[in-house]
Amino acid sequence: MVRFFRVSKTYPGGTRALQEVTFSIEKGEFVFITGPSGAGKTTLLKLMILAERPDRGEILLDGLNITRLPPSKVPYLRRRVGFVFQDFKLLKDRTVFENVALPLEVAGYSPTRMQRRIRQILRLVGLNDGYLDKLPQRLSGGEQQRVAIARALVNNPPLLIADEPTGNLDPQLTTEIMDLFRKTNLLGTTVIVATHDTSLVARYGHRAIALHKGRVAGG
Amino acid sequence: MKRGFYLRQAWRHFREGKGPYLFGLSTITMAFFLFALFLMALENLEGLISTWHKRIQVVCYLEGGIGKEEVERIKEQIAGQPEVGALKYIPPQRIKEELLGDLGEMARGLEGLEEELFPSCLEISLKSSLSLASLEAFARRMEKIQGVAEVQYGGNWLQRASLLLNLLKGGAWVTGGVLLLVTLLITANTLKLVFYQRREEVEILRLVGATEGFIRGPFYLEGTVQGLIGAGVAIGLAALAHNFVQTEVSSRVYPYLSHISFLSLRSIALLLALGLSSGLLGGMISCSGSS
Q: Distance between CA atoms of A81 and A159, rounded to whole angstroms?
């Protein structure tokens, strides 16, 4: 599903984020990307959706070499990848429905299909129809992250990427969100979770790719 | 679907940035209003000059003491010219009467003047209005006819009026250009502010796979609508001003003002097109360099 071959990335100013990173993730796998802050986890995830471009190396996503993908094709790549952030990145002035609807609006769904799909996905992440018209600010952290996950999954992407998705949550909510990722993975979606929390990795026992100072240290 | 999203987004942007939008819109409206008044004045002046031009008569003054047969010969020669529509002979007696009539009180003592002192003339009405150059050439041809002493057609006066009209037309182009630039800058700055306010939303839209066209569409729409509304309201204000001048001002100040006509359809279309294109360009500029 995802292949990195000798990928390097240096930011302007000389910060080396990734150096010669090579790994491979199979379709349907659940993989952790681990490492301390500054190890290059976020850069690695950003490269997968071309929010950043590598300086060297090749990245293959579902067989497609995205390294030289023209900018006009990037949006279509991103529609095949769901992204979950630590800070949820929900629009505060939009209801739960409107937030989850964004990827469907972008993909050109009809209002009827959109309604059906949003109700379905909210039920999957454990939120009933009563949440549809609520604003994110009126939800708890766990509920906000569920909405963010619903938004990432709503147009059925084959790949789900999460950057420190439990970083702002207490242990109880962390377990609930991780269970949600596991459930998503069981439904066939490839899941990649970046975290610095080693206890989380140990508890779930999935394969982990460890990064240290921009290099693969294990996995 | 996309259209619905654009409209909802544009409306949302307007609700959140009402202040800058209304400020921008009122400035655009004011600029277009002034331009509409200028165009209206220009069109009316053009109409006036064109009417004068159409009604222009060429007057050929004949040499003194000319006989009837000679007058007939000259009339025949002039009537044979392709430009001539109608021809009228004015005898010296009529000219004397008209002069005395025009002078009124001041003509006292002139009644005794002999009619022979006044020249007779031929008034030529043209078939269709001629350009200044053709008119001049026609007058020169008339001057060459034997028995014609002098030809008058108001060429200098018409030339000056046409020059003034051309200058004003040039001014209209310059003003139009400045207006386009002003609208463009106001729209671009207003929308740039809105774009900046919505940067988080734009970032999320990009992450969920929105194309640049999808993200920028609402801003283009907002710019276009802002320009169109600005031009439309300005045309409405110009219509009110025109109505006010025609009814109120003309009856109290100068009756001729009641003949002033409103903007032609061409000018209305020009103003709307100017509003639309400058608004659209402003919207495009507001998002440029943001990807």
A: 5
Question: What pLDDT does B187 receive?
Answer: 80
Identify the domain containing residue B115 by its residue range: 57-153
Is B138 found in the same domain as B71? yes
On whether both B127 and B188 belong to a single domain, the answer is: no
Of A49, A103, A105, the CB nearest to B5: A105
The full 3-state SS of A123-178, as one line of letters, equals HHCCCCHHHCCCCHHHCCHHHHHHHHHHHHHCCCCCEEEEECCCCCCCHHHHHHHH
Mean pLDDT, rounded, for A141-153 = 92
Residue B1 scores a pLDDT above 60: no
All residues of chain B having their beta carbon less than 8 Å from the beta carbon of residue A151 are 208
Residues of A in contact with B291 (CB under 8 A): 71
8 A C-beta contact, residue A157 and residue A80: yes
B196 and chain A in contact, CB less than 8 A? no
- Predicted local distance difference test score (pLDDT) of residue B48: 82
- In degrees, rounded to 5, the angle at the alpha carbon of residue B248 between the alpha carbons of residues B246 and B254 is 70
B90-135 pLDDT tens trace: 888 888 788 788 777 776 777 777 777 788 899 998 887 777 788 8
Nearest to A93 by CA among B224, B197, B236: B197
Chain position carrying tokens 């009110």: B240
pTM of the model: 0.69
48-87 in A: which are within 8 Å (CB) of B? 49, 51, 71-72, 75-79, 83
Q: What is the pLDDT of residues B223-262, one digit of tens each?
A: 899 899 999 999 999 999 999 988 887 777 776 777 789 9
Question: Do residues B263 and B238 lie in contact, with contact meaning Cβ atoms separated by under 8 Å?
Answer: yes
Residue type, B252: R
Q: Could you tell me the pLDDT band of residue B291, with boundaries at 50, 70 and 90?
A: low
Decide if B129 contacts B51 (C-beta within 8 A): no
**ipTM rounded to 2 decimals:** 0.87
User: Would the CB atoms of A103 and B201 count as touching at under 8 Å?
Assistant: no
Residue of A nearest to B204 (CA): A89
pLDDT digits (tens, 9 = 90+) for B157-177: 777 888 888 888 888 888 878
CB atoms within 10 A of CB A104: 22
- Nearest Cα of chain B lies from the Cα of A208 at a distance, in angstroms, of 25
CATH of A1-80+157-219, picked from 3.40.50.720, 3.40.50.10330, 1.10.10.410, 3.40.50.300, is 3.40.50.300
Q: C-alpha distances in angstroms, A148 versus A74, A82, A190, B118, B273?
A: 21, 10, 17, 101, 44
Q: d(Cα A2, Cα A192) in Å, to the nearest integer?
A: 10
Return phi, psi of residue B117, to 5°: -70, -20
Q: Do B209 and A77 touch (CB under 8 A)?
A: yes
